[in-house]
Amino acid sequence: MRDRSSWIVRPSDDFEPLMSLFCFPYAGVGPSVYSGWAEQLRPSGVKVFLIQLPGRESRLREDPICTMGEIAGAAAGAIAPLVTGPFAFYGHSLGAKIAFETAREMRRRSGNAPDHLFVSASIAPHLPWPYAPMHRLPGEELLREVQHRYGGIPEPVLRERDLLDLLLPGLRADLTVLETYSYIAQPPLHSAITAFGGIYDRSVTEASLLAWRVLTQSAFAIRMLPGDHFFLHSERMTLIKTIAKAAAALETPASLAAVE
Asked: Which residues are catalytic?
């Protein structure tokens, strides 16, 4: 059994939050993509926990996981002991689907799903995957296809062969999870859902984000932001302000409202 404690990067300071936020990274990267979120959300009473998958960053020596079910089960098991009040998930791209399946797994185990699910740059999970699979492509071809479809790999990284050799197994595993994922119909969540999209994202359309609406029995909102597939970085403060607004809403009767 994998060590549950290694799945979560916890905040350095301890306090009683209005809301705990668990952040799921996108394919091929680790929790460092959310660097600074804990400090910027702390004044709003949000305690940030970062999901750390095996094969990434501090867990680089571990074998990555290639199935959605195993990831969602392990993440749910690691998160459950840390939930003592209202909580939310944020996931970007593949991280959005992992967050969604983790929420459903927590509901299945205990009935305790997130109050709010923030999903960004992700086609709704029940829609057919519209792209040809690439997780079996040879290394160079795989990287070219990822760069063509999503962009986001810095040129200096592409020139560092040794670094790419370290990162490629995790990226390939994540693409395997994404491309072999099969949605299974279940009742909609009671979690409010806010979906974010990049106006210039070539791979995720506004229509595919609007489709998240049917996956909740609660409130739904969508926000299209400037940027491409990786607006997570360029629009970070907009995302943080939206999450802070959701935390503040938990103190009002409209605590489950989606936020715009």
From this structure: 93
